[in-house]
Every structure is written in C-alpha cells, then in structure tokens.
Model the fold of this input.
Amino acid sequence: MILPVWILFLATSLVYASSIDQRFLSNSGINTSKFLRVSAVVNADHEPYNAKIECWELNAPFNKYPTVGEALSLGDVTNVTYVTLPPKSHEGLHHPPHNMFFILLSGVAHVRLPTDPDSDGLWIRQGVNPLIVATDTMGLGHYTDYPGDTETVALQVPLKDGQVPEHVVVGNGACECAKQAESKSRRKDIKRLPRVTHESLATRVRQGWNVARSSTGAL
Done:
C-alpha cells in the first residue's frame, strides 16, 4: 500500500521531533505554565497486574513556540506504525505490542477493561483523548472496539526503551475535559458495546463484525 505523502511526512517528523534537545523548547520562549493531560491504559502495581485507566499530567510544560502557538517535548520514541482498523471491528482480549503512544488520526476507538465491564472505559475520538499512552503489557490486557461506520486510522509510536514520559497521576479513569464532557451527550450516535463473551463474539461474526483474537493488537 502506498501511503499519502502527508502521512509519511508526519511519521518522519514524529521520530525527528523526539530527538530535539529539550533546551530548544525551554529556550524558545516564556514557559506558559500549562501542562498536557493524557489518558493512559496501564498495569496495576500489584499482582495480577490487571489493566486500569488513569489520567496523567506530563511534567514537561508547554513553551512558547518560536513562531506561533505552544509546544512540549513528549520524550524519545522509536519507529512509527500507520494502522488502519475496519469499521465495526473488535480486538479480543490483548496487550499493546509495547509501551507506546496511540495517536488517533480519524475514526473512533473504545477501550474496555475485562475487570470492570460496567465502567465507561476510555473513548478515543478526534478532539477527545486523541493522544493516549498504552503500557499494559502484562496481566489480562484489555478490549478495544472500533464501532464507527468508517475506517479508524491511527499511529502507533513506541516509547524508546519503553520509558514513559515523566508525569503525575491526577486521577483514576480517563481524563475529563470540556470536549469530552460534551461528547458524552453525543454518544447516542455510538452504540455502547456490552462485555464480550464467547457467545457475543460468535454473534458479532454472524452479524459481519471483523473480530480479531490476537495476543497483541493495534491498541
């Protein structure tokens, strides 16, 4: 498959940007004292290390960009993988292939925890958690659904040596923001998916869902 030129440029820029010395940002302008919050799917710190969702605030602050706007360093990364997920598809219980950023370019994804089936999980949409961290490489893993009517496109960006960016945990569950709060009132257009069982997996296959049952997945 031949990728669009802008995708290749974006992927190359991400890897290149990760190599920029932090001094470039800190010296480029006044520290704005603003910090980025990202949702993260992580392992619990005790056995059996089941997945949980946290809201992180990254330690690196935004700095004034040399031209316009603001920027911050997300740390060192390696490689970039362009992933396409078909509409109404489902990844069975799985782990991320490595500690990574997951960056949504289009579509919608929904992460659910097998140990907390009644929670809302983590919705990933444009403008709502489009950048998340995934590090739950142990334990049971998690489910990811792609319930939209169109293809979901994302980038997998592995963290160099698996090193996550420095951060503080500001709360359990997905990060809340104005746009995310607004999205909850608009969720009537996205069907909430039930906890997956072997029976419901078979039902989805009969209904034409693309169901993957792999030990690692896109997210």
Notes: Residues 15-29, 178-206 have pLDDT under 50 and may be disordered. Residues 5-18 form the longest helix (14 residues). The first strand starts at residue 31 and ends at 43.
